[in-house]
């Protein structure tokens, strides 16, 4: 890969994706709130949806949490408890299991949307496109497992990726450490950032609603006070 393209993809492109992700989501919520939904097709056929949706959401939530904590937690915060190679093996086993569960669920959802004529006719092109992109991303993620396993002794891949991610969120981008990384990781990273870029323009925006529902549980109690009405009484000649 040319060094200029490498620097753009891993030093500049992440900020473009994050800016579009945040500002685009805000703009869509402000302008098109009626499109802020997942467009469920449960009424057309519920059986395969139940299995596919549950497996997909369980897997994807675990993967999102694992990637966030695994990449953004500095090494010194966990080295007293677990070594870097042990953490990488834990990530391989847990992430591989969650990825497989998510892959099965998403495959069921994708097959259902393509194979059922009624669902296919009522589906937007963006619905199908985002499912295919997520499916490819899961395949790429599973393809990184053999490469991660080959680095299990020194945890090189995990440490390099964590350093890059932490530099991105602290506005100190440096993609030099990614130069010698296996291609599976790089393609997986670029497609993952592209999903954030496409997020505001797809059905994925309903994820924000899920986060809002969690915050709703911690809301303060609503204070309701009785309103005193000045009603006429019998003594004043009013109607009782």
Give the tally of β-strands.
Answer: 0
**Count of runs of 4 or more consecutive helical residues:** 8
Structural class: mainly alpha
Percent of residues in beta strands: under 5%
Largest sheet entry: none
What fraction, in percent, of the residue positions are helical? 55-70%
How would you describe this structure to a colleague?
The longest helix is centred in the middle third of the chain and has 32 residues, at 84-115. The protein is 67% helix and 0% strand. It has helices at residues 3-31, 47-72, 84-115, 117-122, 125-150, 156-169, 183-198, 206-217. The protein has eight helices and no strands. The protein starts with a helix and ends in a 23-residue tail after the last helix. α2 packs antiparallel against α3 (84-115) and α3 (84-115) runs antiparallel to α5. It has 240 residues and is mainly α. The protein has a single domain (3-217), classed as Transmembrane di-heme cytochromes, Chain C (Fumarate Reductase Cytochrome B subunit, Up-down Bundle), CATH 1.20.950.
Give a short overview.
The protein is mostly helical and 240 residues long. The chain has helices at 3-31, 47-72, 84-115, 117-122, 125-150, 156-169, 183-198, 206-217. One of its GO terms (biological process) is anaerobic electron transport chain.
Helix-strand blueprint:
Elements: H1 3-31, H2 47-72, H3 84-115, H4 117-122, H5 125-150, H6 156-169, H7 183-198, H8 206-217
Helix pairs in contact: 1-7, 2-3, 3-5, 5-7
